[in-house]
Specification:
Helix 2 packs antiparallel against helix 10. This protein starts with 15 loop residues before the first helix and ends with a helix. The protein is mostly helical. 62% of the residues lie in helices and 1% in strands. The chain is globular and about 55 Å long. Strands 1-2 form a two-stranded antiparallel ribbon.
Length: 267
């Protein structure tokens, strides 16, 4: 893909409040969720306590409400989002099973919240980097620091967020070999990507969502989740990203930020 020149100062990115509203970041949502599920403790907590089969979009809705409220909402909306997530996390905990297969988990564990926040940042910046010109190093650093709020707003201590983008890259590189996809996690992922009980508009978008999710994952995780891939799929994936990079930045802000406004109006 042809590299674009750095972002011009006339349209600066000052931090997460400028980046989070971009609806194109939703293209990385499937990747972020599957990365979360591949962490054994997160995956088993979600598989046991979530309802992907009956409401496959519930986790996405909750995550988006949380992100938009923290980054662009009022103080009251941010506080309500934190309280809502805390209530949702409280019952999501269990001891390790005697079979040695099902791990212990606690959704209020700061390390797990670090991982969830990390997947959101990593997936958002992967999509942003494919669609928009690259940020200056200073802007990229500011954006990275801001993303810590997604974990800090809950139980993650500020010092747990890696200090620099380089440290974050090392953290991600160390985490990837620890990820596992067993039958329970794979089943939860299938329910999410099938979206059988989702509204018609969501079901119509799922082939594209599955393509983008598979293309953005590592080959190892793609295989572990049973997502088909081929040279032809790779060409379509790259063509979709290239076309998006041409069209999306030229859309009016009212269209690009429409999902954020929708979720911030959500009671």
């Amino acid at each position: 893909m042809r590299r674009r020149p750095p972002e011009r100062a006339m349209n600066p990115v000052r931090g997460i409040a400028d980046v989070a509203p971009e609806s194109v970041l939703l293209a990385g949502a499937g990747r972020a969720i599957l990365l979360q599920l591949a962490h054994p403790a997160v995956g088993h907590g979600v598989a046991r306590h979530s309802s992907f089969a009956h409401d496959p979009l519930k986790r996405l809705h909750g995550t988006l409400r949380y992100i938009y409220a923290l980054t662009n909402g009022t103080p009251e909306q941010a506080a309500a989002a934190r309280a809502w997530v805390d209530r949702a996390h409280w019952p999501v905990r269990a001891d390790a099973a005697a079979d040695g297969i099902h791990p212990a988990y606690d959704a209020r564990d700061p390390e797990l919240q670090l991982w969830v926040a990390a997947t959101l940042y990593d997936s958002a910046t992967a999509i942003r980097g494919a669609v928009f010109p690259p940020l200056s190093p200073a802007a990229a650093d500011a954006l990275y620091r801001d993303y810590a709020v997604l974990g800090k707003a809950l139980q993650m201590p500020a010092e747990l967020w890696p200090a620099t983008r380089e440290a974050f890259a090392s953290y991600m590189a160390g985490m990837l070999p620890t990820l596992r996809v067993d039958d329970a996690v794979a089943s939860a992922a299938r329910e999410l990507l099938a979206a059988r009980n989702a509204p018609l508009w969501a079901r119509l978008l799922m082939p594209l969502a599955r393509l983008l999710t598979a293309g953005l994952l590592t080959p190892e995780l793609r295989t572990a989740f049973g997502l088909p891939w081929s040279a032809a799929r790779d060409r379509v994936f790259r063509a979709v990203l290239s076309a998006t990079a041409v069209v999306y930045p030229r859309l009016p802000e009212a269209i690009r930020h429409a999902p954020m406004r929708y979720y911030l109006r959500w009671p």
